[in-house]
Amino acid sequence: MSALETRELTVRFGGHVAVNAVSCVFQPGTLTAIVGPNGAGKTTYFNLISGQIAASAGSVHLGGRDLSGLSTSQRTRAGLGRAFQLTNLFPRLSVLENVRLAVQAVAEGKHRRGLNLWSIWSDHAALTNRAMAILDTVALDQRRNDTVASLPHGDQRKLEVALLMALDPQVYMFDEPTAGMNAAEAPVILNLIRQLKADKSKTILLVEHKMDVVRELADRIIVLHNGSLVADGEPAEVIASPVVQEAYLGIAKEAA
Description:
- The protein is α/β, with parallel strands linked by helices.
- 39% of the residues lie in helices and 23% in strands.
C-alpha cells in the first residue's frame, strides 16, 4: 500500500504565496479532512497534488515515486483520483456510456492493449456489467440511458463519484463533494465516501466546510491558513485548538 506525500509543496502567484511549503504524509486506510477559512489554499493544495497547477517548489510522491514532472492525466494513471477532473468527459453520451468508457480504460490499461474492435466486442458484456454495478452503487441505475448534460446537479455529482470509482485509484480526492446538493441528495454522496473509507488500501482526502461532516468522517484533520499548515492531528484535538477556533471557526480569543 502506497502513501501519498507532499514535501515542502509551494506555489507563488506573483508576490503572493498561495501554498507555503506544506509537507504532509497521507497513509492508506485513512480519511484526512483539509479545512481552513476561504482563501486558505485548500483547493490550490489539491490542484498542486493532482497536477492542475505547477508547483513553484517542492514535490508530490506516491509510494515513493516522484510525480512532480507528470501531467494531470499521468498522475491519474499513477493512482491519483480527483472527482472534478471527470465532470465533463462526454456530456452528450449517456450516463452508462460514460461509466463504461472509464471501466474500459482501466481494463485496457491493466492488460496493456490498445483500443481495437475485438477488445470492445469481446469485453462488452463484462464492461457493461461492471458499469451497471457502479451505477447501482451510486443510485443512478434508473438514469443510465439519460445524457450527462440532462442530469440535475446532484446527479452530476453522483456521476463524478461513479467515474472515480470506475478508475479505482489509490487516492480519492474530494473537494466539497456535497456543495450545491440538497438535503436529500447529500447523504448519498456521504454514504459513498463511507463505503470507500471501508477499503483500507485506499487513501481519502476531503476538503469540506461542514464541520459535522468532518467530525463524522475524518480520522485526521489538517488546517491551512494563509497557505501554511497550522494544525494537524485527530479531529477532536484539532477542532478544539485555539488556532482553529480563531482562524477557521472565527472565534476570537477572549480578552485576558
